[in-house]
Design brief:
With 212 residues, the chain is mostly beta strands. It is built from no helices and 15 strands.
């Protein structure tokens, strides 16, 4: 992956992009949220202190999915009534990217699917069935969540959102999908698989007291 560099418009520190297609990143020095147009950076806000996180995954963790190596380069943190979860932005050696969902010790890898007609928020209720990627999915849960924080590189600008609807869809096997209504007028679909933690073969993970 190429590593273009620009200067933070807030503090002047050098900001290096590990992924050439990144649209948003966070300055590691002053924690400004920076949205990128080519190599021109716009400061759109500051990241608040991130909440305590029990996840072993962190920026620069590496792993494997379907025999393909990936690196973790970004994260969006969500919170809802019963807790929160992480969406880790992962990039593969060929430059493609996806998402590693990390919620209460459950993991799933998914990828953006475009050009598919999607249901409205009101149509995505629990128990409803939809066929995506020739797979029959059932809506298992719907969650209203708020943006809690962000770090690293993302493929789109994302900050300061609240009251967003997410619909998780599953099958009897390990197929997994999410309907993301962060923008109710332009919902997006991610399709992938649930994955056991061990199968990800993660390296450079966070170490916690008591781990051997």
């Amino acid at each position: 992956m190429s590593s273009p560099t620009a200067n933070c418009p807030s503090c002047g520190a050098p900001v290096t992009f590990r992924w050439s297609s990144a649209v948003q990143t966070v300055c590691p020095f002053c924690h400004s949220i920076l949205v990128r147009t080519d190599l021109t950076l716009q400061n759109v806000g500051k990241v608040a202190d991130l909440p305590p996180d029990p996840s072993p995954i962190q920026l620069l963790t590496s792993g494997t999915y379907n025999n393909r190596k990936f690196d973790v380069i970004g994260r969006i943190i969500y919170e809802y009534e019963q807790g929160g979860w992480n969406e880790w932005h992962i990039v593969f050696s060929d430059g493609t990217s996806g998402w590693l969902s990390d919620a209460q010790l459950q993991y799933a890898v998914s990828f953006l699917v475009q050009g598919v007609p999607l249901p409205t928020e009101n149509q995505a209720y629990r128990g409803q069935h939809f066929n995506f990627s020739n797979i029959d999915f059932e809506v298992s849960t719907t969650t209203k969540a708020a943006y809690k924080g962000v770090e690293g590189e993302l493929p789109f600008p994302f900050y300061g959102k609240s009251n967003m609807l997410f619909a998780d869809l599953r099958t009897r096997s390990n197929d997994f999908a999410t309907l993301d209504y962060s923008d109710p007028l332009a919902p997006v679909l991610f399709v992938g698989k649930t994955v056991p933690f061990e199968a990800l073969q993660l390296q450079n993970v966070r170490q916690f007291e008591g781990w051997s």
